[in-house]
Write a structure and sequence with these properties.
six-stranded mixed β-sheet
Length: 472
């Protein structure tokens, strides 16, 4: 068994364990808003390939860096050993934990991942210089990871340039990469693994290359499965219809519209649960994701109507008003947020009636979703995938409204360039008899192309990671 070992280290309370959880797709350690939560180093398996393993060490945070340097400089003499093993161990646990973190790096690490708070100026964070001196003393290659980046469109390049200029005085630092513990995208992890390969000794690069390929295969399998779930969901929504009975009056139309809405509600909830599960967001993380996505992914106008079901129903009247009240009071903000958002948001309240279409079926009239609503449904569903792909496992504030607007613009632009193809898939879904597998495959291909373009535009350095997918 050949291991490549990464040691994740940072000043205390920067977000290190949150990033470890996000990279590993599972809970490790404790995440609390206080210093020195992690007290011992722990190794976790990130990915395997044959006889090779990529291990990630979550280490105790570094605290009083100046005192730490002093302790380590004297670790070879009896007094230094006594201070560490007796005094610090029993009387100064934070300092003891920091020394253990450094020992872990020295003994086990192939590469050090040094996480810093990018919202701070490196010149003002006095501990950074001391910690870089420590890392230089250890002598392992270092990749600086920028956490808490904030809004990428306004400050990412500036933050990277600022930190690159600062660490230029420490040759031990080989790369500076953005990798926010709370809003990173999975493709950025692939970029990190490629940079790890760059800094390894030549004899270690082939095992790392195999591990990076294994990670890529696993990640692309998730990407393809998510695309397939979305493709099947959109195909089913386009094909769905509800027959009208002999008395196609207001009450019967209301019944048919509600039946459509109920099915889309159930399908949307099922889809979003599947996407969250595919990305390792189970249990409380699904609930956290629901709350955060509900807050951030209301479409324009949706918030204005929330809580106003009775007024909206009275204003719209008839079947449309009854459905609007059902949508609001049914809590369709995340689970069927695509429905609530598309009808109440993108089309506006006055457009509610346009969400449905009366059509002539083979034997009787039917109610189905209008093409305009289905286009909005596709846009919002793709946007929510992008949100899930960025979701981190921690306590940090995830609500970056500007990021949401940026993602929305990227999805909208990519989808608009394929609007004719989407319209063709809707028509095909309505014409082809069940199970519509061929249409679902073509819709999945469209979804995959849109999402790949969005991610490659947002992260050009990750183009190679998305160059092939297993689903073709």
């Amino acid at each position: 068994m050949s291991d490549v070992t990464l040691s994740l280290i940072s000043h205390t309370n920067v977000g290190k364990t949150t990033l470890a959880r996000t990279l590993l797709r599972k809970d490790v350690g404790e995440v609390l808003d206080q210093a020195h939560v992690t007290e011992v180093s722990e190794a976790h398996e990130l990915v395997t390939s044959g006889d090779h393993r990529l291990l990630l060490w979550d280490t105790p945070g570094l605290g009083d860096s100046a005192r730490l340097v002093s302790r380590l400089r004297n670790e070879g003499n009896p007094l230094g050993w006594l201070l560490h093993q007796v005094w610090d161990r029993n009387r100064d646990r934070p300092l003891y934990s920091s020394q253990e973190a450094v020992r872990n790096i020295k003994e086990a690490a192939d590469v050090v991942l040094y996480l810093v708070n990018a919202s701070e100026s490196p010149e003002d964070a006095g501990y950074v210089s001391w910690e870089l001196e420590l890392l230089t003393w250890i002598g392992k290659p270092v990749i600086v990871l920028l956490n808490q980046m904030g809004e990428p469109t306004s400050g990412e390049d500036d933050a990277i340039a600022r930190w690159e200029a600062f660490v230029a005085g420490w040759p031990i630092v080989k790369h500076v990469l953005p990798l926010d513990a709370f809003t990173r995208c999975w493709v950025q992890e692939g970029v990190l693994l490629a940079r790890v390969e760059d800094v390894l000794p030549q004899e270690r690069r082939e095992p790392m290359r195999a591990l990076a390929r294994a990670w890529q295969e696993r990640s692309l399998a998730v990407f393809d499965e998510a695309s397939a779930r979305i493709g099947a969901y959109l195909t089913a929504a386009a094909a769905d219809q509800e027959p009208l009975g002999e008395d196609a009056g207001r009450a019967e139309k209301r019944r048919a519209m509600r039946a459509l809405a109920d099915r889309l509600d159930l399908a949307t909830r099922s889809l979003m649960e599947a996407l969250l599960d595919l990305h390792g967001l189970q249990g409380r993380y699904q609930e956290e994701a629901r709350a955060r996505l509900e807050e951030d992914f209301r479409m324009p106008g949706e918030a204005a109507w929330s809580g106003g079901a009775a007024m909206l129903g009275a204003a719209m009247g008839g079947a449309a008003g009854g459905l609007a009240a059902d949508v609001i009071t049914g809590g369709l903000s995340f689970g069927a947020g695509a429905l609530a958002g598309a009808i109440l948001g993108a089309m506006g309240a006055a457009g509610l009636l346009k969400g449905f279409q009366l059509a002539v079926g083979p034997d009787e009239p039917v109610v189905r979703w209008a093409q305009e609503l289905l286009r909005d449904l596709a846009q919002q569903t793709l946007l929510r995938y992008v949100a899930v792909a960025h979701f981190g496992r921690g306590r940090g504030e995830w609500r970056e409204v500007q990021s949401v607007q940026r993602w929305s613009a990227l999805v909208d632009r990519s989808l608009k360039s394929r609007i004719d193809a989407l319209a063709a898939r809707i028509v095909e879904a309505r014409r082809e008899p069940p199970p519509r597998s061929a249409v679902a495959e073509r819709t999945t291909s469209l979804v995959r192309d849109v999402l790949r373009e969005v991610l490659c535009t947002a992260y050009p350095q990750a183009v190679d990671i998305l160059s092939t997918t297993r689903g073709r």
